[in-house]
Amino acid sequence: MNKTEILELLEQLSISYDIVEHPAAYTIEEMDRFAMPNANQVAKNLFVRDDKKRSYYLLTIQKDKTVNLKELRALLNSRPLSFASEDDLLNYLGLHKGAVTPLGVLNDTERKIEVIIDEDLLPLNNIGIHPNENTATIWISIEDLLRLIQRHGNTVRVAKI
Q1: How confident is the model over 98-124, as a mean pLDDT?
Q2: Which of 56, 62, 161 lies closest to 114, judged by CA?
Q3: On the CB side of 73, how many CA atoms lie within 13 Å of its CA?
Q4: What are phi and psi for residue 61, nearest 5 degrees?
Q5: Res 30: pLDDT
Q6: Distance separating alpha carbons of residues 42 and 60, to the nearest angstrom
Q7: pLDDT value at position 32?
Q8: 22-73 pLDDT per residue, tens
Q9: Selection from 62, 75, 55, 35 nearest residue 117 by Cα
Q10: Helix ranges, the chain (H)
Q11: In this structure, are strands 113-118 and 56-62 parallel, antiparallel, or unpaired?
Q12: Fold assignment, 3-159
């Protein structure tokens, strides 16, 4: 699904969102330069895998957090973790580097990717994420995001990261 298809799906499901179009942004630092409203609610997204390429995880965390992969491994009870390749990103999520978003799992036809949402995001009314393209950011409620991912059939959980 591309940006247009994501927005159409949100409309069909009566999921409210706000959108800001912007130049392509590949990092949180680039996003911060745009001085968007509610920039403090923009989430960072990381795509990781285990060392055997059997388990893949998409992490959605507060934008200023860093993730210790060894601690994350213990939390997920997984094999050693590393960042997934650009090929994996394209093959599983249909996304390019810089456009990682939990909405990418809507392209995961095998429902292989597990989405992990940082519980520190829960107090926010909405979070800012890309709509599968890094030229826009949408603000959507965590509840709607969780329901959308579950509706698609991917595993999603909230965890302290």
Answers
A1: 96
A2: 56
A3: 11
A4: -135, 170
A5: 87
A6: 10
A7: 87
A8: 999 998 888 888 888 888 899 999 999 999 999 999 999 999 999 999 999 9
A9: 62
A10: 3-12, 28-33, 69-76, 86-88, 142-152
A11: parallel
A12: YbaK protein (3.90.960)
